[in-house]
Amino acid sequence: MNNRPEILFLCVHNAGRSQMAAAFAREIGGDRVVIHSAGSAPGETLNPAVVAVMLEKGIDISSETPRKLSDEVGRSADVVVTMGCGDACPVYQGKRYLDWELSDPAGKAIDDVRPIRDDIEKRVRSLIADLLNAESSSGERPTSTRGDSAN
User: Fold this and answer.
1) Backbone region of residue 85 per phi and psi (left: phi > 0; alpha: psi in -120 to 50; beta: other values)
2) Does residue 145 sit within a domain?
């Protein structure tokens, strides 16, 4: 049985923000968390500026590809972090939702993507710390709530 908290980072194209968040979460959380990244209408490739700014942090996501959200992944997540989905992302009842309002890096220059990356890293660090503290104090996976926000 898996007692590690599962996080789903979800956006429309899964080519930028959700990929950065997932990469940071894997880096920060290691094997203490399970990380998923998906899109409601995934693009074909990752945003090259996103790949470049992540490399600046020593994280290579160049081999990642946008993935379509599956119901299995949506239902297994303890926390669903949406990023600019609006009504395009499905709602899974009983899940804890965080809606991170972040600029879309699509079409932006590297200098404009760095602040988005840094904001995502800060939010991911906070989320991982909260989840791991909740898990260690209770010995259980985090409880699910709806309408939680990390803005």
Assistant:
1) alpha
2) no
Question: Which of 10, 21, 33, 85 is an active site residue?
Answer: 85
**Over the stretch 93-114, which tens digit does the pLDDT of each residue have?**
889 999 999 999 999 999 999 9
CATH at residue 87: 3.40.50.2300
Q: Residue 14 in contact with residue 39, Cβ under 8 Å?
A: yes
Q: What is the per-residue pLDDT across 40-68, written as a single tens digit (0 to 9) for each? A: 999 999 999 999 999 999 999 999 999 99
Is residue 115 part of the annotated active site? The answer reads no
pTM, to two decimals: 0.87
Q: Which of these is catalytic: 7, 8, 10, 11? A: 11
Choose between 91 and 126: higher pLDDT: 126
Catalytic residue among 22, 89, 102, 116: 89
* 11: annotated active-site residue: yes
Task: Please count the other Cβ atoms lying within 10 Å of the Cβ belonging to residue 90.
Answer: 12
Quote the domain boundaries for residue 132: 6-138
Alpha-carbon distances of 40 from 5, 43, 62, 68, rounded to whole Å? 22, 10, 21, 6
Active site residue 89: yes
